[in-house]
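As a warm-up, study this chain.
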Amino acid sequence: MDRTLSVSLDRLTELLTDGEECRRWLTGLGVRDSTRGRGDLLDLAARAPDRARLARLAGQFEAFLPGCSDPGMALTNFERFVAASRSPAETATVLAAHPRTTEILLQIMSTSQTFSELLIKNPSLLEWLRGGAARRDGDLMLGELWEEMSGFEREDDQKRVIREFHAREMLRMGDYDSM
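Now compare it with the structure written out below.
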């Protein structure tokens, strides 16, 4: 997607300062609980203080939220994802610069709370998905899991590796199915 999606800085300021206008805007995007949605937007603004990047995210919301099955759920999970990342401002910057990633993330977060929670618990999985989590055969997957587990002797560590591997594979399948 080559086009730049953004709202003007004046419009962003209006959305952040005028509660009623923000709620109208969010309702127009399909967000049913516009009061909660406004809270999500304000929380994003606090975590991503660069207004130009936030304006780009708002433009992406205008473009993508209306196409989501549950725009409010998508916005809330999106905000939770950004908040859970190691560097919320950096995560917002990456998403603002990659509209297709934001679009896919919003779609996943509007359709599956399970996949949303996987991403929120481990935000680095987004980079793994962006890197091309392609379909793989079973033998290759088992070989990769075995290799990851072989670095650990303790049963607890091996169980953790299996849980992380399972989460990645579930997310990869969900992403593949949503395409």
